[in-house]
Structure formats: C-alpha cells, structure tokens
Amino acid sequence: ADAAVAIVGAGPVGLYLLALLRRAGVDAVALERRRAPTAHPQAHFINTRSMELLRATLPGAAPALAAAAPPVEEWRQFAWGSRMLGGRTFAVADMIDVGGTVSAVSPTAPLHLAQHKFERLLLDAVAGGGAGEADRVRFGQEVVAIEEGQDGDDGAGVVLRTAAGSSLRARYVVGCDGAHSAVRRLAGVAFDPSLSVDYQALLNVHFTSRELGEAILAGDGDAMPPGMLYFLYNPSTVAVVVAHDVGRGEWVCQIPSFGGAADEAEAVDAVVQAIGRRPADLEVHSVRPWMMSTRIAKTYQSTRGRVLLAGDAAHHFPPAGGFGMNTGIQDAYNLAWKLTTALNAEAGGEGEGGAACDHLKALLASYTSERQPVAIEAAALSDKNYEKTLDCARSLGLDIRLAKIAEGISGVLPPDAQARAMKAAMRVGLLPTHALLEKGNYYGDACVAALNQRIKKGGGLPLIFPKYELGTRYRRGAFSPKDAAAPTPTAGGGAAASWGHGDMEFRSAVEVGCRMPHAVLRLEGKAAKDVACVSTVDLPAQLQASYRALNHPDEDCMLTAAPWAVLLHTEDASEALAQAIGELPLQRTNLALFATAAGHDGPVGGKSARCARASHRR
Questions:
Q1: Pair 162, 254: CB distance under 8 Å
Q2: Where are the coiled-coil regions (predicted)?
Q3: What is the rounded CA–CA span in Å between residue 458 and residue 464?
C-alpha cells in the first residue's frame, strides 16, 4: 500500500487524526481538495473535552492554542442590541459563569480560536513530527473515485483516484471532507432521513476591521461591550456577528437569506447596517452562502468496512452550542487508536480470518456504536439551542416563522418578483424594531425587559455545557458492559467535584465508558527538580504512547486505550492516586496502576521502562 491510512480532508478533524496516527507510528497521509489552507474563520470554539484531548495527545498544543487565542475577557459575553456602534444594547450575558469552576473537574478550559488559526497549529503539529512529515498533507488532491476491495485481496483495501488522474492505495480511508463529503457519497453511505432538518439559508460575510474592535474595547460612546456573539436587530437588518478576535478585528456576519441569495453588495450593506457605520478600514474577504441544517449518517463505516467517516462528513448540525468541530475532534480520538490496533493486528497476521478477525471487525464497528449516539445527542441539543435564539428574537417582537410563510408564498412568483416580494416582506417584518431603538418607547422597553427576563431564566443561548462536554458515556461499544448501570457519583459518600448547575451540571464519576475523572498527580523523577504535575485525564493517552515505546503487542496493551487506565511513575504513587480518586464518591472503579522505572520522557515511561501491574478497587 502507498499508505496504511488515507485521510481525505485536511480540516481540523482530518489534521488531528493525521497527527494522532503519525504519533502512533501509522503510515498515514491526508489529501485535501483545496490548494492551500483556508483563510475563512469557520468554527471557533474548542470546548473543554477537546482541549483535554489536545493537551494529552499533542505535546505543546495546549499552550500554543492558548497563546494564539484572544483573552477570555474579550469573548465570555454574548450581547443583544440594535447596532454594534451607536445603537442600543438590549442585553448582555456572561456565558462562562455556569456555576462552579472548570478547574475542579478538568486540567483545561475552553478556548475561542478561529478554525483557520487552529488548522495552522495542527499543521505545525504534524510537521513537527520530523523530516518529511509536512509532505504528508497533500493539497490540491480532489478525490473523485473510491474502489474498495474485499478482505483478503492481494492489494491494499482501498484505491483512491483523484481528479488529476493519480491514484493512492491504502488499507483504510477516512473521510474528513466536510458536510458535502465526496467520500461519504462514493462509499454509498446515506444520511438518516429521520434526523435530517433544514433550518435556514444564510450568508456568511468574513470581514476585518481593527477600528471596530478598538471602539468596542475602548467602550467608545454607545459601542456594545466585548463579546463572542452579537445578536443585532434594527429596521434595516437582522444579523449575528461572530467576533473571532475583537482585538485583531476579525469578524463573520451571518445574515438570513430569503427568496434567493443576496448579492455581495447587499451583503456588505447588511454588515454596515449591523455595525452602525462603515469603519474606514472595513475589508470584506468573502461572502459565502450556507444552509444551516442537521444531517447524521446512518453508519460511519462502509459496508466492506475499510472506509470510515469523521467530523462533518458523518454529522453536522446548527452551530448553536459549538458542537460541530468538537464532536469531530472527539471522533478522531476515538477512531485513531482503533485504526492503530487494527493495523497492528493485521500486520501480525491476526486479521486474516477466525475469531481474531471478527474481534477487529467488531472493534471498528464500535466506532459507529460509540460515536453516533454522541452526534445524535449533540444534534438534539443544537436544535434546542437554535430554538432559544429564535425565542429571544420573539421576545423582541420578531418571528422567523412569518418570514418562512412569506417565503413559501412568494415561491410561486418569478425569481425577480420573488426577490422583490421578500424584500418588502422583510421590511414589514422588521417594523417592530423601530420601537427598540430608543429607551422610552413603552412597547420597545417591554420587549427589552422580556428579553432580559428570558436570559435571566436561562433562555438565552448557552456557551458552556458541562454535562455534555465531559459527561459522555459509551453505553454500547468496545469496552462497555452490556448490563452496565448508569454511573452513580453520589455512591460511597463525600462530595463529587462538579461544574455547572441544573440540567447542565456535570459531576465526576468513574465508570467504564466514561471519561476519567480529574485528579492532579505529582510525578517525581530521580532529581529533586525533575517534577511534573499531570492530571489523571492526561494519562490514558500517554499510556498508549508508553506502550508504543515499550513495543508491547499483547491484548492488555491494546485495552489501555480505555478511559480507565492510568500510568504512574513510582510504586508509591499507587496509594497517592487511590487517595486522590477515593475523594470522589465512586460506584465502581477498576484502575490499572502501572509503575515505571527510570528513563522516562516527561510524565510518560520511556523505552527502558518496565511495567508491573497491580489493581485497586473501590
């Protein structure tokens, strides 16, 4: 084969998967249709669980991401108003304060970083693997055909053919090529129609203006305060502006599109109306139409098993809540170790038939059974969040359902007449916003008060979802017992670490199929200054790296990818961990504690390490 794994798509999911596979020693490449990395700041929120994975699996990633991201004080708020400059601010909400602190349950915190900047850091992580690693991302390679062979064929499992006429043979192919995935289509994987929803056609306008950012940070006049999202309503436009970086002046304006796509001039005018005036340095970089929708593939694996899907190729949903890219990053983490295990077993002759072959097929099939329910849950929550944004607009007297009705009626008209009719309907629909512009209007003030009351009661769009970010549980999958009961964090006495409140609260618990709880471990080497502090959350991924260094091929080593395995540096640390974890009220714990000798690299055992297993149960 030309490669063990061919990844189609070099967005954040494809690049992260490539980095994971290369660190595992897998011969992997990524093919990208674009000729260069994107400059459009699409997704922009990296949640706590994704940050945990990046911290644990890519050395230096977490500090590099933190250095590239704007400070949290610039994006912790959402704001509602008429215009960003010179208008009226209706409401402001702090979306980071959800009750408790993230540091109680995680070694990381979420970040706000535009996708194109995130991709560059992932490219650096791939290139930093050694000479020639940067060449593993091949731009300008559009895949147009896939030929998937039968198991046992002499050649590799899959042949990819590109628009340029070249071909590549691989044992496995992973489609990370976005919502309009060619890999998904070519592999014959369909969406589940029962989970498919079209919400709204939009125009995304990417623009820059440092002048706008400086005015907001300085609090000039009637400027709205710094925030991540601005929900703007005035007689000329309805828009959501995403502040990708207030200080550097990078923005995306999302404008609903009815009755056909607006042209670029109209889109730019809508941006100016949303801002309140035209900044002298305003520069529009792109105007892109986009349909906000939910789609989830029926399966994440082809019938023959060697083509898999991850990220938006497998699922996409409204951006409300920021689950899209994060779900994809977590897909990649789940899939990487399973592909590595399958490839190692095939190289050892274990994939040629019999029980071992069936075991590997079941392992790869568990990727769908574990990750698809997560996407379905994220889609449902995203739908709920999107409805919350519409409820906020209804508090201000605006109802998108009326625009949808007008759009349906105008659909019988010729295109030119349809566009004129929709513009007239929009002007009528936006009439209530006149009352919102100045304080003192009885109706307008009542609407603003209703909006603030809704937000106060939790009716605004949330940003942090502790239970959904950290509380994922694989009920059916590679390691989940068939008769497993739900984790019971209150069993055993004591107070579990928690984050959030109400139906979003996350409480630490230990159970097979759940994420490892956070406890800080102090790992000491032979020299007094040789000390590292790590989290138990870091250790499952590091244990995989340690076993690769030890070249340990047995089944137990493969199982250490489970989220309940940890690595310790000294035998005495076993008791320290038992005490740390014991502070949590656990229902059931089955922790494999490993002691390593000298010769370590950071907090992970090196090639000269020896492993001795003991067990601790509570």
A1: no
A2: none
A3: 12
